[in-house]
Design goal:
Elements: E1 5-14, E2 17-27, E3 32-36, H1 43-51, E4 58-63, E5 66-67, H2 73-78, E6 81-84, H3 96-106, H4 118-131, H5 147-159, E7 165-169, H6 177-192, E8 196-200, H7 204-210, E9 213-218, E10 221-226, H8 228-232, H9 235-242
Parallel strand pairs: 3-8, 3-9, 6-7, 7-8
Antiparallel strand pairs: 1-2, 1-4, 4-5, 9-10
Helix pairs in contact: 3-4, 3-5
Length: 244
C-alpha cells in the first residue's frame, strides 16, 4: 500500500548546524501519528520542510504518488496538506466566518474542476465552524474568543482547505485539562471523517490518548518509531526526556 506521506533521507542545515539528519518516515492514510521530542529536537523544522515553508537540502518528500520537493507551501496545501499553528494568527479585522472563507477561496476553489458558488461557500463556512463548536459566533471577531476558541478557529481554518493530511502543531499548549480533552475529541472526530492527522504535542497524556503510533525526534534524528507503549519504554527515548 502506498503511504499518504513518505519522507526519505530528509536533511536540513542552517549554516553549519544540522537541524535534521536522514529522516525516514511514512504516514498511512487514515493514521493518527504523534510526533514528539524535546525542545530543539527538529519537530518544527521537519514540519516546515513537509509543508514547504523550508526547503530541505537532501532527501525527498512524497505525498501520495507525487513528489513535493520544489513546490511552494500554497501548492502543497492545494494538494491536500494542511497545518494548524501553535500560535494562531487569524485575520483580526475579519469575522470568524470570513476567516474560514479565505482558505476555501484560495485553496479549495483554486483546485482544477472546483468552483463553489457563494451560497455553497457560506454553507461550508458555517458547517466548519459548527464542527468546532463556533457556529453561533460566526459573526464575531477573533478578539472576542477565549484561548480554546482561538485554537478551534485555527483548526477550522486548516480544515477549510479540505485536507487529506492535517498537521496539528501544539494545538493544546496552555489549555486546561478539560480543554485538552475537547481538542483531543475534535481531532479524533476529524480523523474519523477520513483526515489523516499528525499531532505535535508536549502533553504526553494527550499524545498517548490520541496516537496510534509515535515517532520521536532528538537532536535532528529519529530515534524511535512504533506503538505508544513500545516507544515510551524505549531506553533512548527515556534518556532523551529524563536524562541518564
Amino acid at each position: 500500500m502506498t503511504a499518504l506521506l513518505r519522507i526519505e533521507g530528509l536533511g536540513k542545515r542552517f549554516g553549519g548546524f544540522v537541524a535534521l539528519e536522514a529522516i525516514d518516515l511514512e504516514v498511512q492514510q487514515g493514521e493518527r501519528l504523534g510526533l514528539i521530542g524535546p525542545n530543539g529536537s527538529g519537530k518544527s523544522t521537519l514540519v516546515n520542510c513537509i509543508c514547504g515553508t523550508l526547503q530541505n537540502e537532501s532527501g525527498r518528500v512524497r505525498f501520495g504518488e507525487e513528489a513535493l520537493d520544489g513546490l511552494s507551501a500554497h501548492q502543497r496545501t492545494r494538494r491536500g496538506l494542511a497545518r494548524s499553528f501553535q500560535l494562531p494568527r487569524p485575520f483580526g479585522s475579519l469575522s470568524l466566518a470570513e476567516n474560514v472563507r479565505i482558505p476555501i477561496l484560495y485553496t479549495v476553489n483554486a483546485r482544477p474542476g472546483v468552483g463553489l458558488g457563494r451560497s455553497a461557500i457560506e454553507a461550508r463556512c458555517l458547517e466548519l465552524l459548527g464542527e468546532v463548536g463556533l457556529a453561533d459566533k460566526a459573526g464575531l471577531r477573533p478578539r472576542d474568543l477565549t484561548q480554546i476558541e482561538m485554537r478551534k478557529l485555527e483548526l477550522a481554518r486548516a480544515m477549510a482547505t479540505d485536507p487529506k493530511l492535517l498537521i496539528a502543531d501544539e494545538a493544546m499548549a496552555g489549555l486546561s485539562h478539560n480543554e485538552v480533552d475537547e481538542i483531543i475529541a475534535l481531532l479524533i472526530r476529524l480523523n474519523g471523517q477520513g483526515v489523516t492527522v499528525i499531532m505535535i504535542e508536549h502533553i504526553m497524556r494527550a499524545v498517548m490518548e490520541f496516537s496510534q503510533r509515535l515517532a520521536v525526534l532528538v537532536a535532528g534524528r529519529k530515534i524511535a518509531d512504533g506503538t505508544p507503549q513500545e516507544v515510551v519504554r524505549n531506553p533512548e527515548v527515556v534518556r532523551a526526556y529524563l536524562g541518564e
